[in-house]
Amino acid sequence: MKRASVVLLLLIGVMPVVAGFIGTVMGAVSVPAWRELLAEPGLLHASLLSIGTGVASTLLALAVAHMAVATAFLQQRAATLRLAALPALATPHVAIAIGLVLLLAPSGLLLRAVSPWATGYEQAPDWATVQDPFGLALTLGLIVKEVPFLILVLLGGLSQVPADRLMIQGRVLGYGAFKTWFVAVAPLLHRQSRLATVAVLVFGVTNVEMALVLGPTTPPTLSLLVWRWFTDTDLAIRSQAYAGALLMLLISALVVALLAGAAHAVLSPRWRAWATNGHRAPSLRLDGLASRNVGRVVLGLGGAATVALLIRSVGGAWRFPAVWPARLSIAAWTQGLQDMRAAVAASITVGLVAAVIAIGIVLAVAEVLHDRPLARRRFAMLLFIPLVLPQMAFLFGLQTVLIRLGMDGQWTGVLWSHLLFVLPYAWVVLAEARAQLPPGYRIVARTLGAGPLTTWVNILLPQLLRSILVAAGLCFAVSMALYLPTQFAGGGRIVTVTTEAAVAMSSGDLRSAASYGVMQALLPLVVFAVTAWISRALFADRKGMPA
Amino acid sequence: MSTLTLKGISLQVAGKTLLGPVDAEILPGQILSIVGRSGTGKSSMLAFLCGVLPAAFSTSGRVLIDGEDLSALPPERRGFGILFQDDLLFPHLSVAGNVAFGLRRAGVPGAGRGPAIETALASFGLAGFGPSDPATLSGGERARVSLLRTLLSEPKALLLDEPFAHLDDETRGSIRTLVFDEIRRRQLPTVLVTHDAEDVVAAQGQVIRLDGPGALP
Hints:
The complex is a heterodimer of chains A (547) and B (217). In chain A, helix 4 packs across helix 10 (177-192) and helix 16 (331-368) crosses helix 19. With 547 residues, chain A is mainly α. Chain A has helices at 2-13, 15-27, 31-39, 43-74, 78-90, 93-104, 109-113, 136-158, 163-172, 177-192, 194-206, 209-214, 222-231, 238-275, 289-314, 331-368, 373-388, 391-404, 411-436, 439-447, 452-481, 484-490, 497-506, 510-537. Chain B has 217 residues and is an alpha/beta fold. Chain B is globular, with a radius of gyration of 17 Å. Chain B is 31% helix and 26% strand. In chain B, the strands form 2 sheets. Chain B has a 5-stranded parallel β-sheet, with helices on both faces. A 4-stranded antiparallel β-sheet of chain B has the order 2-1-4-5, covered by helices on one side. The A-B interface holds A 371, 438, 440-452, 458-459, 462-463, 539, 541-546 and B 47, 50-52, 54, 74-76, 78, 80-82, 84, 86, 88-92, 101-102, 104-105, 133-136, 149-150, 153, 155.
């Protein structure tokens, strides 16, 4: 029974990734495919675009997140920051990307706001502010989306380190708050966020959904090239796509290794020299107004993108440079809701069922491994594979597996592919929450006469309910945002609001894209709000409950 | 009235003997004190006695109450009560709920439970505390609820894991007196693990000293 839950989790969460990866490798075993891949014009350019946007966005997002967390902690506003980062975390990549287009495009809200009185433009200029050839818009989009994630990861680490006492120690030794933070506390947080950083980096280098909306087109990023080959009706080009997926894996591995090496060889010695030089300057360059507010700006941009979605979704005709649509019409929405029904239903059902299954399995395994930290760590490494591997590297092969099982294009296939990405998040929240319950509760309950099941249901489960609700919200939001897994497993027959948003965007229907974007942002927020409300109502009169 | 017997108990972890062999016979109302620095396996000994030792340990020896070997029984059927240094009141239940969880085994039927719990609380100076949130109680009050919860499960023997270590100086003495008085009044054979010399003196029983891995009395 105990072993069954462990086997089930491995079977559902790890086996498909391994099988999919093997499938991709098999598909790429072809000399002509590699020859054609390497002869592809613009391959180098596309690869450099992928690497450049991925690396730049990750480093900048990491810097912004660290500044935001440092500032918030020193101003005792960590809780506020967490609250501010949550909505952006819940908003899927595609929605953020569409919102940024509505904001930044030459006909977007930002330029409308200053036209024509400041710019003199009576017509939208012919600028490439999105889909620019250097991938700047793509980089910005990735930053806006990943900063809230990294902020929440760093804040999570903050609860594991004695930050308050470390700060006092540094201040007493005569150092300013910022230097103390970056010498004594930030490195500890960074160590705990390394895996998340790798996930962000690999996603940045290899993602399709953001590059689709914000990235350059001729040539596009490597990820888009490979995606085009894979969706090409000419099957001869398929093995080139497999080879391309493996190339992306190689590139991401190389980038991760190079950045880790650079951090070790260049950054660490400099940081150490700075940390131990004894300078107790009262302020740092980092302490300036700009760096203290950069987190707010990025989170604000995410919020503004969501607002842009909302305005565009209710606007009909909207001539430049009017800041507001000529007519607001809910009619667009009532018609839109009809069109969106299937996609919304698929998003909600897949998201909820994936969350329930993931939470159930993880709870069972967490119970088996609650007093075995080493086994838990190994399990976590296995479950995190889908997050640190380029998605295409195993989704290509996974699709062949699903076809064999007759699950491609089926609701169950989409559900399974979502579970691969939902399970690690359920694990992060619940396995630790279970392990942190004092072991004495179980021992006391058992010696008081309760059997194992009664003990779990009556004593342990109630203390995990709040974590379960958090996990539910997170799992739902993760599922909602998934683009490639839905495309692969759904085969175009199962559509969600995320895939439909991308379709509407590429067909140039901004209003429809905005409506789907609003839906994408709204559904996870509703789930977050409901779970937060239940969490507060549960045991409201019990102060000693774990948060 | 029960007698607790420990026969040749030793614990090994990763092939090394952590503790033992320990032999002792603890008569009704007597307290065996096990003292030693941290890391000598005192708490693991208690975990072994009540049957919750992690699988990483290998063990030998037997535990008997009134001659009955408990080794094959699950924790809920061994008849031990246990008190830790933390009171471990279940945070999601009220004070009465915590006590009721303990009373379950005692076979007091449905409707009789409420008055039984109220009477028990009152006898420990906790009258009217039933509906309270445990988190709002003082350390001494929480310790008393915890003791009451354990006693109402009518254990045949008691295990104490540094039970007074987290109490402040004023309450420690009174709670210790209360616990030890109850042990003698109910004639419970008890194993006490502690590093507080005052506990050992007050226990007035046999003493086993552990001074490091593999050490003997």
